[in-house]
UniProtKB/TrEMBL annotation:
PANTHER family for this protein: CBS DOMAIN-CONTAINING PROTEIN CBSX3, MITOCHONDRIAL (PTHR43080), CYCLIC DI-AMP RECEPTOR B (PTHR43080:SF30)
Occurrences of domain CBS (ranges): 18-78, 90-147
Keywords, ordered alphabetically: CBS domain
The protein, known as: CBS domain-containing protein
Organism: Enterococcus malodoratus ATCC 43197
Transmembrane segments: none
Gene3D superfamilies tied to this protein: CBS-domain
CDD domains tied to this protein: CBS_pair_bac
Length: 162
């Protein structure tokens, strides 16, 4: 279990930990795969969330999955992408989290995923929590925790009889 003092400090960073949906590159599941390939390369990320028309999170699309589809017997062939949509190659078995998830559960899930999609109770995509943002919050927490500990020691020394 994470100590309440640590969890409280981490939560001071909570808002910064979630990248809101409007700042997250995404694709629609109905998009043609060729179009998604362009989007992915422009976004500069290897994996991005897939949404439906009502903004529900439905899966993840990775560059790797598209490249695998392009591989033919004569090497890379983009014509293999014709007729395919994002829904044909996206991964649907994905770890996700609620906005009020326990920090401990989030940390466990981020061991195996570089980011977690954040969904509300209706499955609407709210944003992502990335390993990078969590590590920044951990770094902040360690520093503040250290500083608070040092302050407590100074107060303790100041109050103790000489
Ligand atoms: P990071 O921890 O910042 O390296 O991000 C980990 C992964 O999260 C990236 O490789 C992307 O798959 C995803 N990601 C991070 N930021 C964004 C974003 N703004 N839009 C889409 N995907 C993102």
């Amino acid at each position: 279990m994470i100590s309440p003092a640590i969890e409280k400090l981490m939560k001071e960073h909570e808002e910064a930990m979630v990248i809101p949906a409007e700042n997250v590159a995404n694709v629609m599941k109905e998009h043609p795969l060729e179009h998604a390939l362009l989007l992915l390369s422009q976004a500069g990320y290897s994996t991005i969330p897939v949404l439906d028309k009502e903004d529900h999170f439905v899966g993840l699309l990775s560059l790797n999955d598209i490249v695998k589809k392009m591989l033919g017997i004569n090497g890379i062939d983009t014509s293999n992408l014709e007729e395919l949509t994002v829904a044909d190659v996206m991964k649907t078995d994905v770890s996700v989290m609620r906005p009020d998830a326990e920090l401990e559960d989030v940390l466990h899930l981020l061991v195996d995923a570089s980011f977690l999609p954040v969904l509300d109770e209706e499955g609407i995509f709210c944003g992502i929590v990335t390993r990078r943002e969590i590590l920044k919050a951990v770094n902040y927490t360690f520093h503040v925790f250290d500083r608070k500990n040092a302050e407590t020691k100074v107060i303790f020394h100041a109050n103790s009889p000489s």
